[in-house]
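Handout, section B. The chain below has 509 residues.
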Amino acid sequence: MKKLGKFLRSRFVLGAACILLEFAVLVALFWLLYAYFMPITVLAWVIHVVALLALFNEDDIPEFKLLYLTILLMVPVLGTFVVLILRSNTASKKDYQRYEQSMREVLPRLPRETQPEQLKTQSPEAWLQANYLQDATGYPCFAHTRTEYFPLGEDFHRALAEDLEGATQFIFLEYFIVQEGQMWDSVHDILRRKVRQGVKVYMMYDDFGCMTTLPERYYAQLCNEGIHCVPANKFKPIISHIHNNRDHRKIAVIDGRVGYTGGVNLADEYINAITRFGHWKDTAVRLEGSGVWNLTALFVAQWNTQTDDRIAVREVLTPPEEKRDGRGYVMPFGDGPKPIYTDTIGKNVYLNMINAAKDYLYIMTPYLICDRELLNALRLAARKGVDVRLITPHIPDKKIVFLLTRSNYRALMADGVRIYEYTPGFVHAKNFLCDDVFAVCGTINLDYRSLVHHFECGVWMYDTDCIMDMKRDFLETLALSREVTEKSPRISAWQQLLAGVLKILFPLL
């Protein structure tokens, strides 16, 4: 009862109640004006018809169009008002202008030591992917980068702690979830020591993601300790795009020479210090050398949009003292909501990899709730003869999400996609790997939140040292997983019905 009472008094519940109340008041106000004021009635019908025509002709993800059209047709006129509120999921004009200013400062300082054309003779597919990413994001491709892959959060934690201890100039940390406990406490201790040694420490966590894991003004405590800290997309109990556009990135940069990203947040379940959903399987990648430029730039650009405590770009984006020996090419990249990002970059990177696969395509993902375009690409790859295998969790963190994930199994399996569930517990890794030469490790889930709404990041790699380590880890994880077959337990009829309804609504969730 104490836990329930604490939850009901939490900022999350109170904020959600405020937002629902605001929504109800706005709907009631609109309905009263519509019912009793003729000019509003006429105007509402005009807007309703215009909205229908606009949606039919809009270049948008079909699943979103289906949802909005369903609302408009089932609830005429009032549905238009509801859709206008629901569609406010893009970044504001102010956010866009601040981000554009940051990018104008950051991009000119990034070296172009490796042009995509250099890849053309080695691999046309790699050249096309690098060319697309550079065009879509402005971030360059790099050689001279050592890569190291961590198959578990525990491995990442040890390596991160060692690199943090070696920091002499600055530390950048950007994480979706931070929670007090063994993992964060150990990192926190190092950060406080580094501040006393004169190292500049900048920390950014997502306010919505940490709503139930950190005290409300935790950033103020860190600031008092000398750590520059800001909660990204600070939660406000009002109807706002901010609630959709969460900062789901996981980035650590030390002195601009070492960088990390992957699925691991700074909380104990990610290193199996506590058990929530069985064994937690997560991954990360470490970069050392030129490729860290992009991770540094991603952090600085995001930080400078969130606070007036700006980072001087020229002080942190400086040439490394020496070029590292590293096989292949890396391209860290970012993604986020419109209009800050004009493309669904994470989705397009995944689509390009799926379409480029010739021998095999191996994927680890916690969720499988993506649009028809991605699902059809996976099915087509399997039908062409590519060995397509997916590893998903066996113990879910969210039962409704798991139901939707499983509801997509049958269609994929019918076309030859092989699906495995990680029986020891929960897979949180976001890995794409194909043909021993291409890989992506980052934060981008196969769901609408990651592919459309959130700020995300990842590292695209071509022929790097760690790719074979990623393959080895996938096969070892496969050996611990159970293949889903026609004889596997199926979802019941009522679950199928529920999944069908949720698929219409899920682009909003």
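Note. The chain has a mean pLDDT of 88. Compare this with the example in section A.
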